[in-house]
Amino acid sequence: MSTLLHIEASPRKQRSASLDVARAYLEAYREAHPDHRIDVLDLWGVDLPEFDGDALNAKYADLSGATLSAGQQQAWASIRQLAQRLHDADTLLFSVPLWNFSIPYRLKHFIDVVSQRNILFSFDEKGSAGLLKDKKAVVVYARGLDYSMDSGTRAHWFDFQQPYMEAWLRFVGVTDIEPVVIEKTLYGAEVDETARQAARAQAVALARRASN
Ligand SMILES: Cc1cc2nc3c(=O)[nH]c(=O)nc-3n(C[C@H](O)[C@H](O)[C@H](O)COP(=O)(O)O)c2cc1C
User: Fold this and answer.
1) How far is 53 from 22, CA to CA, in rounded Å?
2) Ligand 1 centre distance from Cα of residue 39 (Å)
3) Which mutation among 143, 183, 187, 196 tests ligand 1's pocket best, with the greatest number of atoms within 8 A of CB?
4) Ligand 1 pocket member 144 (CB < 6 A)
5) Helix (H) or strand (E) holding 22
6) pLDDT band at 212 (very low <50, low <70, confident <90, very high)
7) Cα–Cα distance between 124 and 207 in angstroms, integer?
8) Which atom of ligand 1 lies nearest, measured to the CA of 18?
9) Model pTM?
10) CA nearest 161: which of 134, 132, 187, 182?
11) pLDDT in tens, 27-83
């Protein structure tokens, strides 16, 4: 059975623009694929493992080929378990606010925890390769201001949200990426709603076209 994993990175559960548009995608996706499984990972509702102590030492032990201690093995097992949600999904749907030109720290925390050698990527002297295979990502980006190329300003130079997410997705093996961008959510209710509407329509069209 195909699985869609929705990774929620906004804590604004009622007013969030990224969640609003991701929900429109999900509604259309459910309608088009009633038999598919939907998994939800709310990054503000889970206890992400701290990436220090045993987890950090396990990472460096693995990179240097050293044997993991019992504590390190346990830390590694919980990382593997979290990353398995990504492996088990066919479609990854992310709802991502822009915070200080980049992504919210809970999403970065998640990425730092799960991005490990032999879990999400392989790595040797010849280079690295992503281990997430045959997946599609739909990423809904919400921004208060306008970072688009056609904004008429150099604001796009400050966009470390979309380029970062897409660099990371490619690094872990996901190259089929559909972005849905909501700009100007802080320009007043009318501009916000117009931006959401356009993004919702784009998201619904993508969901209806989705084959898995
Ligand atoms: C901590 C924080 C930092 C933010 N930094 C920026 C920023 O650098 N540039 C910007 O355009 N908007 C910024 N915003 C506004 C959000 O991008 C905007 O409200 C967006 O709609 C958030 O996504 P959401 O509605 O899905 O939560 C920030 C908001 C928060 C809470």
Assistant:
1) 35
2) 25
3) 143
4) yes
5) helix 17-32
6) low
7) 37
8) 26
9) 0.97
10) 182
11) 999 999 999 999 999 999 999 999 999 999 999 998 899 999 999 999 999 999 999
The domain ranges of the chain are 3-49+90-209
- Over residues 92-121, the mean pLDDT reads 98
Ligand 1 pocket, residue 98 CB under 6 Å: yes
Q: Are strands 136-142 and 37-42 parallel, antiparallel or unpaired?
A: unpaired
Architecture in CATH for domain 3-49+90-209: 3-Layer(aba) Sandwich (3.40)
Residue type at 137 in one-letter notation:
A
Ligand 1 contact via 13 beta carbon (within 6 Å): no
Secondary structure (DSSP) of 140-194: EEE-SS--SGGGSSSGGGG--SHHHHHHHHHHTT--EEEEEEE--TTS-HHHHHH
